[in-house]
Each structure stands twice: as C-alpha cells, then as structure tokens.
C-alpha cells in the first residue's frame, strides 16, 4: 500500500507531524482494510513521539464513532482497552473489553479481549476467580491458539515467577520460553531453553503481526539462555515473543504497560 508506505517513511525520518496527518489520511481512505488498521496504530505511536499521548484515547473514540461498523472502528475498540490500562482505569478497561466480546463478530478481536479480561483481573484487580472464568472461555473457544497456551501457563501458576510455556523436542529435551516480569515497564528478561545446538531466532511482534524487534538470530548451544527486551520506544500494548529453532517454535504473549 503506497499511501501507508509513504506515511511510514515520514515516521522513520522523524517528520512526526506530517506523518500523523498522512496516517490519518490512510485511516480515512481505507477503514475496511489492513492498511487502515495499521495506520490507526501508527497514529497512536506518532502521537506518543510528539508528546501528545493524552490525545490518543479521544482519537480512538473518534475513530469508533466516525467509522462505526467498519474494521478500523472495531480495532479502535480493542485499542481503547490498552489505553485504559495505561491510565490505570482498569474498570473502564474491563467494560470496554466486555463490549468487544459481546458486540463484535471479529473472532480475532474477541479472542484478544477474552485474554485481556483474564489478564486485567489476574494482574491488576487481584481477582483470580474472575480471571479464571475469562481464561476458561478463551480456552474453550480457541483451544489451539497461542493465546490459549499463554492463558493455560498463567493458570498453572499460583505465586512466584510465571510458569514457562514449554514443549518437548523429539529427543525429549526441553524447549521453553518465559519472561519476567509480565506485565512489564519498560524492560523484561526473556529466558529460553533449546534442546540442541543450532541457530536460534527470538523476535517480537505487535498485535498486527508486524515485527518490532529481533532479539536474537544466531547460533546457540543447547541449554538455557536469557535476553533482555527493552521496549522503551514502543507504546503500551500486547506483544508476542516468538522463539524458533530446528523446525520448532513457541509464542508467548507479553504486556507492556507504561
């Protein structure tokens, strides 16, 4: 999409005011396409760069109203959840995520919102009983999804560090991925284990599937390793760490809250 690419180049060049206008034009022109959804996220990022993050929630509200029923409006509803979390407005985040689940026919957004509801109650409202209910709905509706694996890992812990997301290689050796703390601000330590010597890739993606960081892409010996992920330049939101080696991969959802 040439119009989005042009806006993104302006963003990379640090021309944030012009980039903001360009991203907003993409949202207006393509409210039903992925370019419009990506541009909406970059409207948030650009406002952060301009020191105008206080405007983000109003922009998302406006997108929901202006493009009601369209794809970009549905994404704006989900993005409001993260803005409420960022501001410590957890009950508002719960209400917003609940609306997405009840009123949205986009299964991807419903899936994220169920996970968000579980995570808000688990991490911020200290109500693990309610968190288990929402995580349970996620597990029942999306049994093979990476978010479900993350929820199951969370439910497996009682106190102390989070339970690793793990699998086993054909040889029976451990293949694990975890991070602590989670949620985090602005850095978290990612620990992983690989069952054999080989090339290892560890990358971070945003909710739109865009790669935002490559933490590791090199040969590593079998065993346990750790890498620090510093998200100072990223906005509050949900991200995914992906560990890949020798035909195997693991994905874990992490939450950045500034």
Describe it:
- This protein is an alpha+beta fold and 258 residues long.
- It has two domains: 2-155, Serine Threonine Protein Phosphatase 5, Tetratricopeptide repeat (Alpha Horseshoe); 165-256, Immunoglobulin-like (Sandwich).
- 48% of the residues lie in helices and 25% in strands.
- The chain is built from nine helices and eight strands.
- The protein has helices at residues 2-12, 16-29, 34-49, 56-66, 71-86, 90-103, 107-124, 128-141, 146-155, and strands at residues 165-168, 174-180, 187-194, 198-206, 211-220, 223-230, 237-245, 248-256.
- A four-stranded antiparallel beta sheet has the order 1-2-3-6. A four-stranded antiparallel beta sheet has the order 5-4-7-8.
- A hairpin with a 2-residue loop joins strand 7 (237-245) and strand 8 (248-256).
- Helix 5 runs antiparallel to helix 6 (90-103) and helix 5 (71-86) runs parallel beside helix 7 (107-124).
- The radius of gyration is 19 Å and the shape is globular.
- It starts with a helix and ends with a strand.
Helices and strands in order, then pairings?
Layout: H1 2-12, H2 16-29, H3 34-49, H4 56-66, H5 71-86, H6 90-103, H7 107-124, H8 128-141, H9 146-155, E1 165-168, E2 174-180, E3 187-194, E4 198-206, E5 211-220, E6 223-230, E7 237-245, E8 248-256
Antiparallel strand pairs: 1-2, 2-3, 3-6, 4-5, 4-7, 7-8
Helix pairs in contact: 1-2, 2-3, 3-5, 4-5, 5-6, 5-7, 6-7, 7-8, 8-9
């Amino acid at each position: 999409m040439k119009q989005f690419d042009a806006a993104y180049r302006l963003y990379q060049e640090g021309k944030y005011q012009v980039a903001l206008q360009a991203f907003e034009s993409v949202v207006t022109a393509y409210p039903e396409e992925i370019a419009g959804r990506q541009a909406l996220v970059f409207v948030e990022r650009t406002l952060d760069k301009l020191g105008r993050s206080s405007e983000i929630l109003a922009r998302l509200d406006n997108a929901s109203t202006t493009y009601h029923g369209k794809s970009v409006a549905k994404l704006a509803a989900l993005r409001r959840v993260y803005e409420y979390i960022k501001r410590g407005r957890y009950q508002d985040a719960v209400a917003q995520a609940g609306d997405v689940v009840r009123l949205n026919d986009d299964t991807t957004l419903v899936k994220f919102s169920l996970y968000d509801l579980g995570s808000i109650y688990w991490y911020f409202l200290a109500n693990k009983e309610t968190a288990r209910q929402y995580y349970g709905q996620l597990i029942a509706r999306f049994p093979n999804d990476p978010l479900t694996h993350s929820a199951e890992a969370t439910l497996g812990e009682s106190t102390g560090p989070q339970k690793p997301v793990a699998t086993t290689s054909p040889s029976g050796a451990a293949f694990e991925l975890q991070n602590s703390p989670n949620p985090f601000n602005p850095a978290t330590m990612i620990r992983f284990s690989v069952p054999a010597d080989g090339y290892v890739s560890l990358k971070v993606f945003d909710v739109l599937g865009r790669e935002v960081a490559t933490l590791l892409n090199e040969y590593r010996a079998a065993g346990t390793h750790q890498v620090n992920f510093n998200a100072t330049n990223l906005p509050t939101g949900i991200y995914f760490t992906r560990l890949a080696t020798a035909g195997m991969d693991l994905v874990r959802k992490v939450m950045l809250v500034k």
